[in-house]
Specification:
mainly alpha
Length: 103
């Protein structure tokens, strides 16, 4: 087995898909909604693959930590940009009872 983590990730995907197909329309799966279960399975596969690539990579630990820091900075910059772009502009509208100081 050259890359057992990849096989585990594919197995998680297959089992989660099978569980969703069998129990998806009958209500909750393990106490959560089917959409949340699918999302958790999807994210667990990504976490497993990213964690395995960091743990079993070909580079030294210094290079791995540098790569983690760079990707974390990219992610945080994208998240901040997304939040800034979709921020609702604040508009102050005077009420009818407000007194004007204009001359």
């Amino acid at each position: 087995m050259r890359q057992p983590v990849l096989y585990v990730a594919v197995a998680i995907l297959i089992v989660a898909t099978g569980v969703l197909l069998i129990f998806g329309r009958s209500g909750d799966i393990a106490g959560i909604a089917p959409a949340q279960f699918a999302n958790a399975a999807y994210l667990s596969i990504f976490a497993l693959l990213i964690g395995a690539s960091l743990a079993f990579g070909r580079h030294r630990i210094n290079a791995r930590l540098w790569h983690i820091a760079v990707w974390l900075a990219v992610f945080l910059a994208l998240a901040a940009g997304y939040r800034w772009f979709h921020q609702v502009p604040t508009v102050i509208v005077p009420s009818e009872n407000a007194h004007s100081t204009a001359i």
